Here is the input.
Amino acid sequence: MFKESVIGKTGQWWKLGIGVIAMLFGSIAPVVDSTGISMMTGTVIALVGYAFSIAFISCPQCRLRWFWKALIYSELYKPLFTKSTCPNCEHEF
Ligand SMILES: [Zn+2]
Here is the structure.
């Protein structure tokens, strides 16, 4: 299913992966004492991961930053994960 999505077809899964891993790490690491990561540092790591996904996952055709737009129009999330066309320029990938 995800492989057929516009994010999969444009080869940008790894960017989402980095963002998700950073968000998870930044959320979990501060509550695990042995990591020595403070709540502040964890929050920064999580935000950087989130910002990375937003800034670098974009349409190769029209350059629209999909997740940036999805922040404003949350109905965009579904087509990004289910359709193989850009929700903005309708380019088929
Ligand atoms: Zn596009």
Observations:
- Residues 39-56 form the longest helix (18 residues).
- The chain is about 55% helix and 0% strand.
